[in-house]
Design a protein that fits this description.
Oligomer: single chain
Helix content: over 70%
Strand content: under 5%
């Protein structure tokens, strides 16, 4: 399945595109954490646990950051669309 077909499938079932994008972001972060911990096989268990702790913290921040950044971008587009006040 290609990404466009997944996006159209999501739209037809009422799932928003941003949810699919967020799922891709989460998957990439988890894959990166798995790669890091596999590379740290000889490191202490505490160091590997720290990687997973940071990963889980990042996963919890994704929805909040996506919402905040989307609102910021919309504000900037609105400000750019306005004409500067004449003096």
């Amino acid at each position: 399945m290609s990404l466009p077909s997944l996006l159209s499938l999501g739209e037809s079932h009422g799932v928003s595109v941003s949810l699919v994008v967020m799922l891709v972001k989460v998957t990439l972060i988890l894959i990166a954490a798995l790669g890091i911990t596999l590379a740290m096989q000889r490191a202490s268990a505490g160091a590997r646990h720290l990687v997973w702790l940071v990963t889980l913290g990042a996963l919890m921040l994704i929805p909040a950051l996506c919402t905040a950044l989307r609102a910021q971008c919309q504000r900037q587009r609105c400000d750019a669309g306005r004409e500067p006040a004449s003096r």
